[in-house]
Design a protein that fits this description.
By secondary structure, this protein is mostly helical. The chain is built from 2 helices and no strands.
């Protein structure tokens, strides 16, 4: 009886579809998070550079 159950379980592919969906869903969730982290980090670096450049610029005041 156990041998017949294991044989049927091994041939059943319905669980494989579930695993595929879980992997695809995890990838679809993690990819935007990773992209957001990379873009956010680069944006912070660029804004610090722009701020340093603006800080070093001289200003002319007219009286």
């Amino acid at each position: 009886m156990l041998k017949r159950f294991l044989s049927g379980f091994r041939r059943c592919e319905s669980g494989a579809v579930t695993v595929d969906w879980v992997v695809l869903t995890a990838a679809l969730v993690m990819l935007p998070i990773a992209i957001g982290f990379i873009v956010g980090q680069n944006t912070a670096d660029v804004s610090e550079g722009v701020g340093a450049h603006i800080e070093n610029e001289s200003t002319i005041t007219y009286n």
